[in-house]
Please model this.
Amino acid sequence: MKLLLCGLAATLMFVQPSMADDTPLGKQMDAMNDAYKAMRRETDPAKGAALARTAQDAMVKGIVELPEMVKGMPDGPDKAKASASYRKMMGSLIATLADMELAFLNNDMAKVKEIVESMRDMKKEGHNKFMEEDE
Model:
């Protein structure tokens, strides 16, 4: 019986992260991440601008969702503040992606590189703030 319970617990540890990716927000974040990875390597301005628009579209769809951590909070002022903070951060990301699109369209690859670096920090900050630690 103990062996069965340990096996079940181990299985759940590996299944849980994939279930989070099946959420509407997880799907949009995956789409944004795929576009972001491609943008980092893109040198063609038209293709880069298209990738930036793809990422923007995913974030526009994702802004109406809430991270699981926020959804799980009890209703009240803390949840309202966390929700507003999440939407503000997503709005800032959408604006940054629009800046990236413009940088690609202006063929300003130095600006693209600068924005890519700032997005790494934004991603880290957002994940630290809105994703629960895996134990």
